[in-house]
């Protein structure tokens, strides 16, 4: 098709009939409902009203999604004997291909005057690499794409459609007004959650805005639709996941109608209060909620694996986390999985981006840890200063950990030492620790501004 467009092919149609059938377009639509899933699919419920002036047994439902899954179609209101999904759409190339063996008329600019049209007729024999015609005198002609010409066809072939169409054969003719509901699944519609957290200056509270990013690549527009979003891991064959990034500039705190949320058979269903329109090849942001300020806390964690087979030195920067709980009254809504971005204001009052992290589907009262990045002003240097093989199954290590706080604020840091086995015993340590997991020892260290501290411990590690 691109070849013909490139050289200026213009296709003209004298008529466009596709057999004897009643056609229903989006203009017959009386209501539209969309339920969009995380996995890149959507359930479409299309309500239509048909008026048949005479009995008809063939109905063409046009303006359905290009990426419809035909095997999922259900039609309530008509007794359907057979249904076909026609997705061979009208285009210059498809029109020419469908007319192989048929007579067409050719119009060209006069080779002498360049103004008058010269008309001729020929039969299309092939479209491989170009259009080959058999002219009325029996000669063969290859249409030169550099010349200005167009073809005239008498009609649209019966098996070509201008839009994706469900053609139905009814069990018996019907007439009068018919109400029907067309239900089907389609791919190409997806959604994800995006969250914007604004952190206060003291880093002890924040607000959270939630937006839904809806993406439509299904092949049609959905006008004035009731929209619902289902969050959860619905089992689907070959799910299609669409990754979207929302523009932070679009996130503005507004007072809006709350989104209705309900538990549904192990999932969560969100109902958008207002109708929405989403065009094909469009992404749209819809506000889910805007929370008041809620409590957050900061955690600095530096974790390292203890190497039990020799002397070594490790240097690192602690990771920064924000911790909060999804609880009422400030939050307390089941949070769909998505990306959470954190902002804070600088001394001039300008909002600055601090980091982002993905969150899983989060139930009410679940705790969250948002990883921001690594702390600039804190540094950790670990060293194994002594290594002794006590037996074939036991090793004793001496560990030294130097922590430097180069900031002007007091910092509290968790140092997590991950042992190579769950059988270990610390003999002596200059700081207290907790056995956070069977294989790790956690030291909680508080450092005043611009100070350095070194802790040390001996540990015996036993191998089974």
Walk me through what this model shows.
Helix content is 3%, strand content 57%. It has 464 residues and is mainly beta. Among the domains are: 1-187, no CATH class; 378-462, Immunoglobulin-like (Sandwich). The strands form 5 sheets. Strands 2, 3, 4, 5, 6, 12, 15, 16, 17 and 18 form a 10-stranded mixed beta sheet that branches. A 6-stranded mixed beta sheet has the order 1-11-7-8-9-10, with helices on one face. Strand 7 and strand 8 (117-126) form a beta hairpin. The longest helix is centred in the N-terminal third of the chain and has 7 residues, at 92-98.
Summarize the structure.
With 464 residues, the chain is mainly beta. The protein is built from two helices and 33 strands. 3% of the residues lie in helices and 57% in strands.
Point out poorly predicted stretches. Answer: 1-19, 237-257
> How many individual helices?
2
Helical content, roughly? Answer: under 10%
Distance between the termini: 70 Å
Question: What fraction strand?
Answer: over 45%
Shape annotation: elongated
Q: Structural class given helices, strands, pairing? A: mainly beta
Characterize the biggest β-sheet.
10 strands, mixed
CA radius of gyration is 34 Å
Name the average pLDDT.
83
Number of strands: 33
């Amino acid at each position: 098709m691109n070849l013909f467009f490139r050289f200026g092919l213009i296709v003209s149609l004298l008529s466009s009939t596709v057999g004897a059938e009643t056609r229903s377009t989006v203009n017959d639509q009386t209501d539209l409902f969309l339920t969009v899933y995380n996995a890149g699919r959507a359930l479409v419920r299309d309500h239509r009203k048909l008026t048949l002036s005479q009995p008809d047994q063939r109905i063409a439902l046009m303006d359905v999604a290009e990426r419809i899954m035909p095997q999922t179609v259900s039609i309530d209101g008509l007794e359907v004997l057979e249904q076909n999904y026609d997705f061979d759409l009208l285009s210059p190339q498809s029109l020419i291909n469908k007319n192989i063996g048929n007579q067409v008329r050719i119009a060209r600019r006069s080779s002498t005057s360049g103004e008058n049209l010269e008309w001729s007729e020929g039969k299309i024999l092939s479209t491989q690499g170009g259009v080959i015609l058999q002219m009325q005198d029996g000669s063969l002609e290859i249409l030169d794409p550099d010349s200005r010409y167009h073809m005239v066809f008498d009609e649209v072939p019966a098996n070509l459609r201008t839009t994706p169409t469900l053609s139905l054969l009814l069990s018996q003719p019907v007439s009068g007004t018919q109400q029907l509901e067309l239900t089907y699944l389609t791919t190409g519609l997806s959604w994800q959650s995006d969250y914007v957290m604004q952190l206060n200056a003291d880093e002890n509270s924040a607000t959270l805005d939630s937006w839904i990013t809806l993406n439509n690549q299904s092949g049609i527009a959905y006008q004035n639709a009731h929209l619902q979003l289902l969050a959860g891991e619905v089992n689907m064959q070959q799910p299609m996941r669409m990754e979207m990034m929302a523009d932070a500039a679009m996130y503005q705190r507004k007072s809006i109608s709350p989104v209705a949320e309900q538990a549904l058979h192990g999932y969560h269903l969100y109902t958008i209060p207002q109708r929405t329109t989403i065009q094909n090849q469009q992404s749209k942001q819809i506000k889910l909620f805007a929370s008041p300020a809620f409590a957050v806390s900061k955690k600095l964690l530096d974790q390292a694996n203890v190497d039990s087979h020799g002397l070594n030195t490790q240097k690192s920067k602690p990771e920064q986390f924000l911790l909060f709980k999804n609880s009422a009254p400030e939050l307390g809504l089941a949070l769909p999985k998505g990306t959470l971005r954190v902002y804070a204001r600088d001394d001039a009052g300008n909002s600055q981006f601090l980091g982002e992290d993905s969150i899983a589907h989060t139930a009410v009262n679940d705790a969250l840890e948002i990883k921001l990045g690594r702390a600039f002003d804190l540094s950790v240097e670990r060293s194994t200063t002594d290594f002794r093989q006590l037996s074939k199954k036991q090793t004793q290590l001496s560990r030294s950990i130097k922590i430097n706080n180069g900031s002007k604020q007091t910092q509290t840091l968790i140092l997590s030492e991950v042992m190579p086995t769950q059988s270990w015993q610390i003999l002596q340590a200059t700081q207290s620790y907790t056995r956070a997991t069977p294989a790790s020892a956690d030291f909680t260290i508080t450092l005043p501004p611009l100070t350095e501290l070194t802790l040390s411990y001996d540990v015996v590690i036993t191998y089974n």
